Amino acid sequence: MALDLHAHSTFSDGLLSPQALCALAQKKQVHVIALCDHDTTDGLFPMAQAAQELVQQGYPLRSIASVELSAGEDGRTHILGYGVDPAHEALRASCAALRHKRASRGLQMVEALRDIGIEVPQALLPSMDSQGQAFGRPHIARALIHMGIVHTVDQAFDRYLNEGRPGYVPLAHQTASEAVALLREAGAVPVLAHPLRLHLSPELLEPLILSLRDAGLMGVEVFHPSAGRRDGHHLLGIAQRNGLLVTGGSDFHGDRGARAKLGGLPTGWQHWQEDLAALEEAMARCG
Ligand SMILES: [Zn+2]
Ligand SMILES: [Zn+2]
């Protein structure tokens, strides 16, 4: 029995459809999965359907309706929302507005790359009129891999797509507190995703988490590939000291060679059963 509370599908920048994700969950013996696509809840209905089909075939799979909102400076702060109402009007409107801005930013980045002599063929990018896809930087990264310019998604970001790199174009986002409040409004349990990715010193990280807790944050994603054993221990301490829920997930996108494997948690999450029960309890309260 395994769980994965952080996975992506083709509805944002993942490579697998919700159906394929559920099939993989069965193969990996994952029994609880949370689809957390970036800034969209569109994949949640097909995900629930696919999970339901497996249940009818006799494989117990619980799918938790979730979302991962980008917030803060350049959208670097990610807030997960567990047990979200996929049809919540204000949430859907906010996601749609961001998707629109992100798509035009993507085109500007393709142009910035052209300026330095890298011509990304249109055929390697998702078409702008496709409904589900949220055109983002990972799509450009994969195009650069396909073109043989880089080998990995990380390399594409480091060399071309991150702030300060030639293909970078900034994108304004809601604040992290606003994202937390919006998720609470949409009946979700807000959890700070992969805190280590914020690259803050321990002296700054805990006060940030506390200020987000004041805005309604309820948990911290302690177990994530970005956190090694020591970091995980530190994050667990912050969560426990401040009465916050503990979650974990692989952040699976489906890329080959990536560290994230569905259902594979990089550090030992010993008390996942208790933590999952606490999350379920919080979802029941918020929903
Ligand atoms: Zn994230
Ligand atoms: Zn993610």
Describe the model.
The protein has 287 residues and is an alpha/beta fold. The protein folds into two domains: 208 residues, TIM Barrel, CATH 3.20.20.140; 63 residues, DNA polymerase, domain 1 (Orthogonal Bundle). It has a seven-stranded mixed beta sheet. Helix 1 packs across helix 2 and helix 4 packs across helix 5. The model has no long low-confidence stretch (mean pLDDT 93). Bound molecules: zinc ion (2 copies). The site of one zinc ion (ZN) has 5 residues, from loops. The site of one zinc ion has 4 residues, from loops.
Please describe the structure with a list of short key phrases separated by commas or semicolons.
287 residues; alpha/beta; TIM Barrel; DNA polymerase, domain 1; 7-stranded mixed β-sheet; 9 helices; 7 strands; binds zinc ion
The helix tally amounts to 9
Q: What is the assigned CATH homologous superfamily of the largest domain? A: Metal-dependent hydrolases
Q: Order of SSEs, N→C?
A: EHEHEEHHHHEHEHEH
Q: Which distinct ligands sit in these coordinates?
A: zinc ion
How is the CATH topology of the largest domain named?
TIM Barrel
Please give the largest β-sheet. 7 strands, mixed
| Helicity, as a percent range | 40-55%
Q: In percent, how much strand structure appears in the residues? A: 5-15%
User: What is the average per-residue confidence, as pLDDT, rounded to a whole number?
Assistant: 93
Arrangement of strands in the largest sheet: 1-2-3-4-5-6-7
Which structural class do the helices and strands define? alpha/beta
